[in-house]
Amino acid sequence: MRIMDRYIRNEQEQARADRIEALAARFAERAAEHDREGSFPFENFADLRDAGYLKLTVPQAYGGDEISLYELVQLQERLGYGDGSTALAVGWHIGQVLHLRTSRKWPEELFAELCHDIVRDGAMINTFASETGSGSPSRGGKPETTAVRADGGWRITGRKTFSTLSPILDRFVVSAYLPEEDQTSDFLVRRSEQTTVVETWDTLGMRGTGSHDMVLSGAWTADNMRLSGKGEDDGGGWLLHIPACYVGIALAARDFALEFARTYRPNHLADPIAALPAVRQSFGEIEAELRTARSLLYAAADRWDRETMANRPSLKSELGLAKYVAVNGAIRVVDLAMRIVGGASLSRKLPLERYYRDVRAGLHNPPMDTNVLQTLAAEALSERAER
């Protein structure tokens, strides 16, 4: 059994995984060009729409597949194996739809409209919250973007960074500060002449996510587009789409190194380098990293699926740990794969150098390592010794 298939539980999951693997293989053929150009892979998203990927987490009542978090992890791994940028970008969409499905933080009428548009037209959603001045919202920054009452709605002005999927979205959520209320709120905004994508995304890795700046110049949105409801706390399980993507990249690096080691034989050796003890040791370390990461990742997803909504917030530390172990393990796996392949791994003719750059982006996706470790430390320190 392939390592990729170890967490498949039934024929339905296998069939869906096989379909997504076929897509991922197609994306892999395009990945190098998009990486070189820093271009957005519109054709990948057309393929995802045609394959029904965009509606996977939509409730069945609205025409979607309503897959579980566990199944989302399975599929995101496979997409990451083919193209990390596409996997991470679409993961924000399907992950947030899962989050909206479970938390019910949107008014039902708005959520139903979004779901119908996803199923019918392939619409997508993402939240733009980060800003240069305030940093990541996960670290508590207050947005400099403002919302002011006007014309039976709101005028929103500001600039958002790391706006993944910005080239393709016709609607998105932004966080904004309301001066007259001295509080922050989220607003659903539609693309218009008052919204502009400024192509700033020119990065070391994940170059095809379209995470440009979004500038709002008094963008108008209606009263009912203020998303003031907090909904239920679902523990943030949907964020496991992030480590799943990076584990997929690590699996691709592992498989490339395996094929290289099985076939590459320098002229001073009688056998391919796979026979060398040092190489076999490195592969053992790769397997240990991957199996540990995937065990934690799938266990966390399965527990979240089975847990009641009331208890899901208690899983935050477990979910954070899964991300921490998966991303840091994935980085080490890619590094080991490059050491096995040697100097050739630096060549842009091979995918390893792209995997190396892409996988490091996981360190800057939430939850951050420092936050995870602080949470774990706080839980440990809050324990009371048994008497």
From TrEMBL:
Domain of life of the source: Bacteria
Span of domain Acyl-CoA dehydrogenase/oxidase C-terminal: 244-361
Stretches that traverse the bilayer: none
Gene3D superfamilies: Acyl-CoA dehydrogenase/oxidase, N-terminal domain, Butyryl-CoA Dehydrogenase, subunit A, domain 2, Butyryl-CoA Dehydrogenase, subunit A, domain 3
Domain Acyl-CoA dehydrogenase/oxidase N-terminal: 11-97
One Gene Ontology molecular-function label: acyl-CoA dehydrogenase activity
Keywords, comma-separated and alphabetical: FAD, Flavoprotein, Oxidoreductase
Classification via InterPro entries: Acyl-CoA_Oxase/DH_mid-dom, Acyl-CoA_Oxase/DH_mid-dom_sf, AcylCo_DH-like_C, AcylCo_DH/oxidase_C, AcylCoA_DH/ox_N, AcylCoA_DH/ox_N_sf, AcylCoA_DH/oxidase_NM_dom_sf
Acyl-CoA oxidase/dehydrogenase middle domain sequence ranges: 129-217
Cofactor: FAD
Family label: Belongs to the acyl-CoA dehydrogenase family.
Name recorded for this polypeptide: Acyl-CoA/acyl-ACP dehydrogenase
Source species of the chain: Cohnella zeiphila
